[in-house]
Design goal:
Elements lengths: L14 H17 L11 E6 L5 H12 L3 E5 L13 H8 L5 E6 L4 H8 L4 E6 L5 H15 L6 E6 L5 H12 L3 E6 L7 H11 L1 E5 L15 E5 L21 E4 L35 E3 L20 H6 L1 H12 L17 E2 L6 E2 L5 H4 L7 E6 L4 E3 L6 E3 L2 E4 L4 E4 L13 E4 L2 H6 L3 E2 L10
Parallel strand pairs: 1-2, 1-3, 3-4, 5-6, 5-9, 9-10, 17-19
Antiparallel strand pairs: 6-8, 7-8, 11-13, 12-15, 13-14, 14-15, 16-17, 16-18
Helix pairs in contact: 1-5, 1-9, 2-9, 3-4, 5-6, 5-9, 6-7
The structure holds N-carbamoyl-L-aspartate (NCD).
Length: about 450
Amino acid sequence: MPTLRHLISIDDLSLVEMESIFEKAREFEEDLGGWADICRGRIAATLFYEPSTRTRLSFESAMLRLGGGVISAADMRTSSASKGESLADTVRVVAGYSDVLILRHQSEGAARLAAEYSSVPVINAGDGSHEHPTQTLCDLYSLWCERGHIEGLDVVFAGDLRYSRTVHSFAYALARFRANIVCIPQAGFDLPAYVVRRLREEFGVEPVKADASRLGHLAAASDVVYLTPQKPHQLSLFTDPKGMSVGHVDAVYMTRPQTERFEEGTVLDETNYLRLNQTQLAADSLRDAVVMHPLPRRDEISSDMDADPRSIYFKQAARGVPIRMAILSSLLETEVVLQGPAVVAGPTWPSQSAGMACINPGCICNTEERHVRRSFRLATRLPLRVSCPYCSQEITFGLVGCSSRHQFLARDAREVRKIRPEDMVFFRDEAQGVEAGYSPGAGASQVPPV
Ligand code: NCD
């Protein structure tokens, strides 16, 4: 029995697989005129707990264009979720009605939880502010079509980089393609620390303060950071390699403020929000940069840009159909493009430890606690840091124990490196460790959790 493939994170696909998906999408779009009768008799279920126009309708259009059928819960407020049904139960039921499940949910990690309970492939159509891998495939496909390649491109991210899931997935993928990212965030809406940490630790990206004088008005109101592969192979792009001055931009990716996800107390002066217009995009370095947006836009791209040949956001949205045809036909295995598990994210280790907590209140492991399988991923070995496999954010703990030796240690004790992940037990503090029958090992003095 082949293992079920899900698409939860953009990391679930290897670069070769992504490129096969682009090839397939282009074949659907250009050679087959947008139709291929290869999913006849198969049903896609769309479960949307949050509003959507493009993602849901382009998935449904894609499935119909593949000859398949669609069942849709477009507004889960009218479903049994409003009677208190858990996501895990809904998924187990709907998987019995369909061959693939497409889920949008407000909690980070929801799609991963769904995949644990589903008997059919699950596709993440956006989980809180965490990830949106199919939008990323659409964005990458657009760059691939417009530029002919992705490697080494210079892409500007602008607007709300903190809560935009499209930006997070896109950043991980661009880093793996060794493209460079220029961050021009709205003040207070920078990339979250956990995203930058993943980019640095897992994808070898170096954040550097950039001299953005050549971006003209576009960068005037913000501190610009350049995220670049540790050995940039495109030094010719920088006018001054030491200062990382941005010279030429291939794409500007704009995002709207994700107000529906703002934490309490978040203040945004909307009148001050970056607004792309002819003046903002007048600098010579931007003369042939494509202007992208996952949409919906409010007024962060002025309509005077719509007729500008650099603006591709409506074309980008239209590409959502062929790319989702390629995704669906791959996961339904009617077209062989996915060959094996991707290797990017490290393994997930089960843990029963009561002394660990995911710091993210919006994570599914804190909102649907009873169905979550407690687990962790290793982020760094010394000091020991672990992350939540659902939302990718940090898991806090006080001390780490070794279940075979019944000893506990501080996270920065050298001996920690010798504990096998399968033997790790996490304690809030010494008292909890002692209560569980563990004793202090050499270097057990506690460091406060980060
Ligand atoms: C995005 C989303 O839902 O994250 N939209 C989309 O899927 N095309 C971006 C957004 O809502 O701003």
